[in-house]
Structures are given as structure tokens and as C-alpha cells.
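Z., the sequence and structure:
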Amino acid sequence: MKERILIKSLLYQLLSLEYLAEKDEELGRYCLYHYINCLTEFELNFRDNLLINLEIIQKL
């Protein structure tokens, strides 16, 4: 459930970045780099949590 809310939030932010990039290209580019870094961190954390959950399920 948390992941779904976070994904929707990230998609909304991406749309906001598109609008920002149209208004100020340099600021939009900076924010996009930050956004990509956040997505990468989210993906790594999500993958780690998934692996932990799989390990727990296998032990049951």
C-alpha cells in the first residue's frame, strides 16, 4: 500500500518537473537529476525489502 502511494507521488512529481522544465530549463534539469537519484534510491530500497520479505516467507 505504501509503495503504491509513493509511486503515484513520484509520477505526479515527474509531471510537475515537466512543467517546471518548460518554464526554467536549468532548474528543471537540476530537479530532474535529483528526481532520478530519488527513484534509484527508492528502487534499491524496494528491491531490498522484497528480498527480505521473500526470505521471511521461505522460512515459514
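The two ends are 23 Å apart (CA to CA). The mean pLDDT is 79.

Let me know what you think.
H.
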